[in-house]
Amino acid sequence: MPVTANLFPFCRKFAEIVHFGGVENMKTFNIQTYKNLIKEVGGLTVENSFLFLGKVQETFGCVPREVVRDVAMKTGFSEARIYGALTSYRDFKVGRE
Predict the structure, then answer these.
(1) Residue 87: exposure state from Cβ atoms within 10 A (0-12, 13-18, ≥19)
(2) CA 95 – CA 3 distance, rounded (Å)
(3) Can you tell me the distance from the alpha carbon of 79 to that of 94, in angstroms, rounded to the nearest whole number?
(4) pTM
(5) Are 24 and 18 in contact, with CB atoms under 8 Å apart?
(6) pLDDT tens sequence across 59-79
(7) Measured distance CA(55)–CA(60) in Å, rounded
């Protein structure tokens, strides 16, 4: 089974247990805070990418577009695939740049 097929159950489970605020709650994006989140999850990998995106959502109130780009670059997923997964769950909000 491809690695990407294994990712979506993690996303689904994460969305079931955590509820997030909306885009209107977006806090100022801080690159140092972002780097600290990457360290907190043990580095950004395919396996923990949606856990990481959830932590970004928790911290900033949404998932900023620049984060989607960075996650895509570091995991090999396309931005479209990440947006598709994020927008499939009502609790994830994609933010502005």
Answers:
(1) exposed
(2) 27
(3) 12
(4) 0.67
(5) no
(6) 888 898 889 999 999 999 999
(7) 9
